Amino acid sequence: MKEKLLNFLKGCVLGTSIVIPGVSGGTMAVVMNVFDPLMQAFSKKNFHRSLPFLISLGLGVAASILALGNTISWLFAVALLPTTYFFVGVVIGSIPAIYQRLRGQVLRLHNIGIFLAALALMILTTFTGELFPEMSLESTHTVGHILLFMGCGAVAAVTMIMPGISGSLVLTMLGAYRTVIDAVSALDMWVLAPFGIGAIIGCILGVRLMRFLLDRYPVATYAAILGLIVGSVPPILAEIGFAPPDWASVLTLLVGIALCVGFTLWDSRRSVQA
Asked: Which residue, among 149, 170, 173, 150, has the nearest Cα to 161 in the 3D structure?
């Protein structure tokens, strides 16, 4: 029961990170030590044994998205700089969790190149902005929009699984983020149902892709993930026009770093004791 409650709380943190553009749910999964179990859970031999873990984690994600969708928007409205810098701190604090997976590995020149390419890709998204105009809920009740939201759900789920890439940021670039958030608040099933179906499909495909990459090219994959995470800071800061932090933002930045580093250390010790 204690393990299920812990997985539910981890799911709540994942759900919170999922709804914030620029913050990667995959990164949080690594920090909270659920990334590897998620990769293993979707294999045929482990799926049934992993159902309690997946259910408790999934319930936490769903509860967090439903409960915090409006709260996160409110925090950004009333305390934009401190809230943004808190999540910058969360991203920075997650770097040691990835780096320790590369410690002791031989980093060849092509792995460094992969790190730099992933870093450059994320910095490029800072200047991309929205690729498509934002939609409104009133324009979503057509077959074309249903298929579109199914595709958006699949793309978002694949990117949410990959550490360093923010599924919400991708949705923003696709012009669907605000519509999906509004649909969560309004419980608009014309948007949520196709988006959810697409997200399930994308989740399965994304997990299989990540398992393939980690099994075949572990060092190169983690080098790419590290580049994506380091490069995810500029897109978050771009949301506030790269405004310098005030004293409250410096405090929330340090709190975000401390929380992530502290949780990584705590979970590592817990895993060793288990």
From this structure: 170
